[in-house]
TrEMBL record:
Family per record: Belongs to the RimM family.
Annotated ranges, domain Ribosome maturation factor RimM PRC barrel: 103-169
Species the sequence originates in: Maribacter arcticus
Name of protein: Ribosome maturation factor RimM
InterPro entries cross-referenced by the UniProt entry: PRC_barrel-like_sf, PRC_RimM, RimM, RimM_N, RimM_N_sf, Transl_B-barrel_sf
Name of encoding gene: rimM
């Protein structure tokens, strides 16, 4: 399994018991849907290694307490500490309406209320305080804030995202 075929679920942040249980900080708004997993991929070095789960349950809101079959001691747990957990993309819950996963809208056309087609979404930059759509229009790159006030419609069928950008933002890039 390759990382590009998976989504990031969270990171192992600490040991929970001397028997090798670990706590995982989940990167999700719905941690409860991951309570009964049977396995996950753990990022070890440059590889994703399958780990089977003996028991898995929520621990204080968005932490998941996992007892892996292969991890039986504190030293076993130390070897996977701070590692990322991944699941195959086909295990992502389906989103509807105007909610979407970042990877799902790459390649969508962005349509602005005033300017019409303002380009193709190349990527989403979520390393800044405000996540941004990186949109390519001919030889120009536009950075459009990703927030609920700007997105008016997500049309999966036609692969478009409709936006109402603040006055002057698109002109800043295209003029």
């Amino acid at each position: 399994m390759q990382k590009e075929d998976c989504f990031y679920l969270g990171n192992i942040v600490s040991k929970y018991s001397f028997k090798g249980e670990v706590l995982v900080k989940l990167d999700t708004d719905d941690p409860e849907i991951y309570e009964n997993m049977e396995s996950v991929f753990v990022s070890l070095g440059n590889n994703l290694v399958p780990f089977f789960i003996k028991r898995c349950r929520l621990h204080k809101s968005n932490l998941l307490r996992i007892d892996f079959e292969e991890v039986k001691s504190e030293s076993d747990a130390d070897r996977i500490m701070k590692c990322g957990l991944y699941l195959p993309l086909n295990q992502l819950p389906k989103l509807t309406g105007d909610k979407f996963y970042f990877h799902e809208v790459i390649g969508f056309t962005m349509l602005d209320d005033v300017h019409g087609d303002i380009g193709i979404i190349q990527s989403i930059n979520d390393s800044t305080a405000q996540a941004l759509f990186e949109v390519q229009k001919d030889d120009k790159q536009l950075l459009i804030p990703l927030n609920d006030e700007i997105i008016t419609k997500v049309d999966r069928e036609n692969k478009t995202i409709h936006v109402s950008t603040p006055e002057g933002l698109v002109d800043l890039y295209l003029s």
